[in-house]
Write a structure and sequence with these properties.
With 300 residues, this protein is of the alpha/beta class. Helices cover 59% and strands 13% of the residues. The radius of gyration is 28 Å and the shape is elongated.
Length: 300
């Protein structure tokens, strides 16, 4: 049975750990709020971009002429972009992404894809992919908790280059979408080629703040085709940026929940150790009383 001194040391160690987990929980809560604000600020821009892209596509004669819309009959080589965090201590946040990425890999191979490569975004995912000897085509690290549009553009330029040069025939994003503080959802989303229903805006939900009216009229100069050719790469940039922001918010929420659970477990452990220490103290007192009584009896 451990001594009282050993139990006191354990209690002090757990208390120090609880201070760290509480501090990390507070930091994650502050970062989560900022990440939510960034997502809310991006949504109006992303919606307006989608609406303009849909109007331009409806006035374009042949969508098949755009490289980012070219649907290839056979997927010989696919790229999976796994968006994970640069740090751990976030529960199953990173593991869920990698598990979904491996499942997408199996589906591609089952459908006849001869090769599947990975693009790792985040140190945790990239490290695991290297450890499992996966074909890691490129990595982007160091900005998972605070991504910028420039980070998204670097990733987008690389992926668009792979697709337009026909090094890959399909690109999918795998990331955690932020739903609420307690809920994050793993999303597997096709990025390239851009799907036809996305370009035509068929999945855009009506804005409840707008009154029903005739569709807005836009005049495109020099032509709808040239405007659409510029909007498509911008859409890819915004899609990746949105995924990065969603993943950042989901990571902060997951870390906040993990640190709160760790703090609660530490409190329960302190209670258990305190009970053990009280029992040890009581046993020591009882033993001393028995020794005193035994000594008194021996003197009689």
């Amino acid at each position: 049975m451990p001594s009282q001194r050993d139990i006191k040391r354990r209690i002090e160690s757990v208390r120090n750990t609880r201070k760290i987990t509480r501090a990390m929980e507070l930091v994650a809560s502050a970062k989560l709020r900022r990440a939510q604000d960034r997502i809310e600020a991006l949504r109006p821009y992303a919606r307006a971009l989608r609406e303009q892209m849909a109007q331009a596509s409806r006035e374009t004669a042949a969508l098949r002429n755009f490289p980012l819309l070219a649907e290839r009959e056979e997927v010989k080589r696919a790229a999976i972009v796994t968006i994970t965090g640069d740090r751990g201590l976030a529960g199953a946040f990173n593991e869920n992404i990698l598990r979904a990425g491996f499942a997408a890999d199996e589906r591609f191979r089952a459908d006849g894809a001869g090769d599947v490569v990975y693009v790792g975004v985040g140190k945790k995912g990239s490290g695991t992919l290297r450890f499992r000897s996966k074909a890691l085509e490129e990595t982007f690290e160091g900005f998972s908790d605070n991504p910028t549009i420039h980070d998204a553009e670097r990733i987008a330029d690389h992926l668009v280059g792979l697709y337009t040069s026909e090094q890959v025939d399909r690109v999918v994003l795998v990331y955690n979408a932020f739903k609420s503080v307690m809920q994050q959802q793993v999303v597997v989303e096709q990025l390239l080629p851009i799907e036809r229903h996305v370009v035509l805006g068929r999945d855009i939900a009506p804005d409840p703040r707008e009154t029903p009216a005739s569709p807005p009229l836009s005049l495109f100069e020099p032509s709808a085709e040239e405007v659409l050719a510029r909007l498509l790469p911008t859409y890819v940039n915004v899609t990746i940026f949105r995924a990065l922001l969603e993943s950042a918010a989901a990571e902060h929420a997951a870390r906040r929940s993990a640190m709160r659970n760790a703090s609660d477990n530490a409190a329960n452990l302190i209670d258990d150790y305190t009970l053990k220490m009280n029992r040890a103290r009581q046993a020591a007192i009882t033993q001393e009383i028995l020794e005193v009584v035994a000594g008194a009896d021996a003197l009689q």
